[in-house]
Design goal:
The structure holds 2 protein chains of 2 kinds. Chain A is mostly beta strands. Helix content of chain A is 0%, strand content 54%. Chain A is globular. The termini of chain A are far apart. In chain B, strands 2, 4, 5, 6, 9, 10 and 11 form a 7-stranded mixed beta sheet that branches. By secondary structure, chain B is an all-beta fold. The chains are: A mainly beta, B mainly beta.
Amino acid sequence: ELKVEQNPLFLSMQEGKNYTIYCNYSTTSDRLYWYRQDPGKSLESLFVLLSNGAVKQEGRLMASLDTKARLSTLHITAAVHDLSATYFCALLKIGGNTPLVFGKGTRLSVIA
Amino acid sequence: EAQVTQNPRYLITVTGKKLTVTCSQNMNHEYMSWYRQDPGLGLRQIYYSMNVEVTDKGDVPEGYKVSRKEKRNFPLILESPSPNQTSLYFCASSLGVWGSGNTIYFGEGSWLTVV
């Protein structure tokens, strides 16, 4: 069974600081997604990571994937208030049409 | 504009009264899916569909039904809703196999309360 664990689940950080959200998973996968969700809103796709060593960046967010360690990270650089949201990683097992499995999410609050 | 449209967006209903949440996408996507989101549990998949007339159970299918008679529509049916089905529901769609890296589009969500 594929399990996805994110940490931390809650993160309060000051504007201008850097931080990393971690996404660990239990079985082999090379399809990992990061989503952002604002309160009461839908999910916005941030990144799709397709292979070991993949790194993608958009603005102050950078995501990476290490399939050998079964780990993806979402790094936040010089946080700003607009980044406050809940961030989810999600992935699926190689070779099947199995459900996309989500982590429980990391609720990020950026404070002045 | 690429869209996944869910209706209703908000609904309060009573235990046992059948209801349907509709989902429609305008992107000619093959893959569609339903998730429920509950506090502290993240999103869990209820059912998914790989194409017309092809559906399969996700992680939490109990108490739900789906159908896929047309490519664009994937309704979620609660035959006899119970309070533990109070949740935020999302429909999602994707062009091809989930694992091909295609973007997965989510609807705006449907808040369902069963009293």
